[in-house]
Fold FAD-binding dehydrogenase.
Amino acid sequence: MKFDAIVIGAGLSGLVATAEIADRGKKVLLLDQEPESSFGGQAWWSFGGLFLIDSPEQRRMGIRDSYELARQDWFGSANFDRDEEDYWGKKWAEAYLDFAAGEKRSWLRKMGIKFFPVIGWAERGGGLADGHGNSVPRFHITWGTGPGVVAPFDKRVREHIQKGNVTYKPRHQVDDLIVQNNEVTGVSGTILIDDPVERGEKSSRDKAGEFQYQGDSVVVASGGVGANFDLIRQNWPKRLGNPPKSMLSGVPDYVDGRMIEITEKAGARIVNRDRMWHYTEGIKNWNPVWSAHGIRILPGPSSIWLDAEGNRFEAPNYPGFDTLSTLEAIMKTGYDYSWFILTQSIIEKEFALSGSEQNPDLTGKSIKQLLKRLGSGAPEPVEAFKKHGEDFIVEDDLETLVDKMNALSGEELLDYEKVKHQLVARDRQIDHKFTKDLQVAALRGSRFFRGDRIIRTAKPHKILDPKNGPLIAVRLNILSRKTLGGLQTDLSGRVLGEDGNSLKGLYAAGEASGFGGGGIHGYRALEGTFLGGCLFTGKVAGTTIGNF
C-alpha cells in the first residue's frame, strides 16, 4: 500500500504534522520505534512552557511586551553569524515570531489549551539590552504541563486512526530512506519485538522482522541527540570548553539522533552541529525512569552559585539568567559540576522542578494541590528530592555543610573559610537597599514583577541568618537536553540537500530540523521555544503536504 505521507516519529511535531495532513483528507502512515506507551514523545515529560508575545496573560500581569521587543531579544540571543547555515534559521525565526505574536495562542485555545495565569521569567539575560535574554516574562505554563500540550494532538490523531485516515505502527524503527531518481519515495527498517515497558523506559532493540513502505512525502520528526552522549561530545564546541566527562540525561534513551544521520546519508544537509542547549542545574533523579535520568531545577535568582572549588560565579552567571554563559564558565573550571548554597526560605519560594511528573498540581490541573504550592513550605516533589536526592545536603551550620559537600564530591576542593568569607560579604549587602552586588540588585529588581514576588523570588535575606535556615547545598550536574542545529529546511518544511535545493518528497519538523531551518535559535534559546518550535514546524510541514 502506498501512502500520501509517512511521518517518522510520534512525538509532538510528528503528531501535529500527522493531524494537519490527515485533516486535509490525506492518508498518513505514522511510524515510531517506541511502544505505544511513549506516544507523544519527550514533550509529554516537559514542563509545558510556551513562548508567547503580548498575550492577555502578560497584560493581566502588567507586562508590556511587543513584537519589536521580542524580535530584539530573539536576534540578540541567537547572534546569527553564519551566512549559509543561518540563512533559513533566520527566516524561520521571523516566521515563528509572527506566529507567537499572532495566531499561536488562539490556535491552541481552540483545541482547549489554557495557561497558568502567572507568567515565568526564564533566561533573564546577559546584561545588555540588545544581547541575550528575555526583557520581560514570556514563559507561559500550560495548564496540564507537557501532557496538556500533547493531549489535543493525541486526540486528533487517534480520531483519524479510528476513521482509517492514519495508520499508526509502533515498534517500527526506520533504518533507511528510499531514494529513487533524487526523490525520497519511502522508508525501510526493522520491526522491533513487542516490549511492555512504561512510558520513557528504555525499550528493546531486538528484531522481529522488516518492513518497507512507499509514500509521496516523508516527514522526519524523530527528535534530537540529547540522550546520545557520544554524539554530544563529538559535536561539542570549543567555545564551551571541554565536553563533560560525566553528565545526566534530560531525555529518554530513544532520543539518540540516529534518524538525523540516516537522513544525511540520503542526501540531506545538516547545519550547526555544534549548537546545543544543555542545562547546568541538573540533579540525579532519585526515582529514575530512563538511563542517567536527570531533572532540572528551575531556580529563582537568590541561591549562591559556586564552582567546584568554591568560587562564586560573576555576572551574568546567576540562577536563571544565562544558561550557556554559565555552562561555559563551569566547563572552563575543569570540573563537570557546581554548587548552589541556599536556605530553607529560598527553597520554599524559588525551587521548581522541570517536568510534568515533578509538577502533579499543574499536570493534574488540581486547584487543591496548587494552593499547597502557594502556601508555606516547599512543593512536595522538591521536598522529596531534598529528602531522597543524593545531590542535596541539609545542615544547620556552614562548616558541617562544607565538610559534607567535600564528602559528596569525593574531592577536598572546598575551603570553609573561603566559602564563609563570600557568604558573609554577600550578606552585608542585605543591610541596606543599595548594593554593589549585582545578584542582590537583580533579585530585588525581580520582585518588581508581581509574578516573581508571589511565587518565584524570596524576600531578600541573609544566607547565614539561622532564622532563614537550615542551610542547603545542592550539587549541580550538566544535564543534556536540546539540539539547536539539524536538518536544514525551507519555510515549507522541505529538507534541503548539500546544493541548497530541496530534496523532493522529504520534509522535517521539530528538533530534527533545529526547530526550523536547521537552527531557529542560533546560539541561544529564550525558553518556551522548544515545544513551540515543534508545534510550528509540525504545523507548517503538515499544512504544506496536506495542501499539496
About this structure: The mean pLDDT is 96. The longest helix spans residues 145-163. The longest strand covers residues 207-220. The CA atoms of residues 399 and 416 lie 6 Å apart.
